[in-house]
Design goal:
Oligomer: single chain
Helix content: 10-25%
Number of strands: 7
Radius of gyration: 19 Å
Shape: globular
Largest sheet: 5 strands, mixed
Distance between the termini: 66 Å
Length: 151
């Protein structure tokens, strides 16, 4: 079964053009952070077998503020190469091939240590960061500012 073209992105890996996509809306389990962030990959010109990649973190739009990661093209390319090494044949139709990426594998696939993000009310904070890391954050009312309300 071919995946939808709407919302997908193209990437060329070792001379083959692939289409990859993250599900548009989270499922209930993904929204609660119970199931991991996943994306699908297939050949762009002649879809055959679909690759499902499961990452060791939650979706960015999860409802509970679980840590997440941005899916970058270098990660997608690394996952495609690893899946092909493990036996995924994108030309052959059939059941989806699942690649589960462990936490320790992320650094090798990205070429650097992963940068996790934590969803916050106004955006995303780097893991271990603080409110000063939010470029779009504006403080509504400071702690030292005297109250102007009087009874």
């Amino acid at each position: 079964m071919a995946m939808p073209k709407k919302g997908s992105r193209l990437i060329t890996v070792d001379g083959t053009v692939f289409r990859w996509r993250v599900r548009h809306k989270p499922t209930y389990c993904q929204g609660n952070g119970w199931t991991p962030l996943r994306f699908a990959v297939e050949r762009a010109d002649d879809p055959g077998g679909v690759l499902i990649v499961s990452l060791p973190c939650a979706r960015p739009d999860n409802w509970l503020g679980e840590r997440t990661i941005a899916i970058r093209p270098v990660l997608v390319a690394g996952c495609i190469r690893r899946a092909r090494d493990q036996g995924w044949n994108p030309e052959q139709p059939g059941s989806p091939f699942t690649l589960t990426v462990a936490e320790d594998d992320l650094a090798a696939l990205l070429g650097e240590a992963p940068h996790y993000l934590v969803p916050f009310l106004w955006g995303m904070i780097p893991e271990g960061g603080g409110i000063e890391d939010l470029s779009r954050c504006t403080q509504i009312r400071g702690q030292q500012e005297p109250s102007t309300n009087s009874l």
